[in-house]
Each structure stands twice: as structure tokens, then as C-alpha cells.
Task: structure prediction
Amino acid sequence: MQIDLSGRAALVTGSTQGIGYAIAVGLARAGARVAVNGRGAERVKDAVDRVRADSGSDDVVAAVGDLATEEGAAAVRGAVPEVDILVNNLGIFGSADPLEIDDDEWRRYFEVNVLSAVRLIRAYLPGMTGRGWGRVLNLASDSAVVIPAEMIHYGMTKTSLLAVSRGFAKEAAGTGVTVNSVIAGPTHTGGVEDFVRELVGDEPSWDEAQREFMIKHRPQSLIQRLIEPEEIAHMVVYLASPYASATTGGALRVDGGYVDSILP
Result:
């Protein structure tokens, strides 16, 4: 399957590293003009240069702004006035004693993980529907369905994104715009690799370490390894393409079979 997104403009939030970065590279390889987002200008500039090198595309631009704030969202909209493909990847996570999470922390997680996505959908969806084509993709997590006891506040935000996606898909009904969420499973990022080493140790090879980690600590996974960011990106690029024109309002899983259910 040859996916061609030439002539399409994409914005990937939180895309200076990890899953967001892989998605930016994947969309750029498919021919889209990609805007890389992060809070710091220098970090975004570095990511833009790396996306260009890794994708072979020069059509990559910076969109600096803290999307957890209205001012930051306005700055991003100023840098990228219109997009055809919006990927809301920005998110924070961390473990905490559920009874010790205060109101400010609950608000912070909601602002960053949910409201940032809603702000951008409100900003860009009207243009998409007016042009009769568009893609909105919200990055959720297995934690949206399997709420982790040590990350209830994080799980809540990812569950919220499933509702946001379904609701805005209804708002865009019949317009040629699709809205979906992607449920990502345990993924190999720098922070997760450090976490694995803390539990398994530095002695085993990485392949052995992640397999031991998955068997002991994530036994629900059917692939018994961490998912690579590029594997999440493949699903996102497909959903951003014309081939996915009949897929909307859905929660698509790239979780390695982690969620023990035949439905999301």
C-alpha cells in the first residue's frame, strides 16, 4: 500500500521525541507538510532538523507553543493557520498515590492531556469541514481502558480522549472529516527503557531485558515485547490517509494485545 499525503498539511503535538516524533517522520515520508510542536524553540528546531534528515523531506516546520495554555495554543495557530491532519499526541504521565493527588495535579493532567486537544480541534475542525477533507487523531493509551491503580489521573485523561474523539466525530458527520483515537500499548521510549532497566538490571541484552519485563510485569501483552514508536506511527499514517475514509468515531488499538478484550 502506497500512502501519498502530498499537498496535505499536518500538525503533530508533542513531537520532539518518542511516539510524536515517529509520527512526524512517518507523515513527512508520506509527503505531508509537517509541523513539529514543543514548548522550547531550540528543542523544536533540533527536532525539525532530525525529522528532515530521517524522513528525507525538507517540508518540515516549527510550531512552538505550550498547548496546555491558551497563549501557547494561539502561538501554534499563528505558526500553522490551517492543517488537514491534526495529531493530538501531547501527554504527560507519572505514577502517584491516588489519595495524594491534589486538585491542582488533577487539573494539570486534564489541561495538558485533554484540553490541549480540545482547543486545537475547535481551532482546526471548521477549516477541515469547510474544505470537505480532514483527519483528527487523538493518541490515547491502554490506560484508557485498563485504568492503572498508580496512574488514575493519567488513565482518566486517556478515557476522556476516547469520548472527545467520538463526540467530535459526530460533529464532523457527513463532512469528509474523520475523527479517531489510537490506543497505544506499552511502548519503547527512553523513559520506559530506563524503567525496564531499573526492574530487570543492566546485565541482560535489551531484547532479553524487555522480554523479561513484559513476562513479569506486563503479562497481558500478546507480543511479549514493547511496541516501537514507529509501529504506532504506521497506524496513524494509515488513518491519516484516504484509505481510512470510512473509519471514524473509532478507538483503534496498537497495543500488542495488551487490553484483554475483543472490544476497546
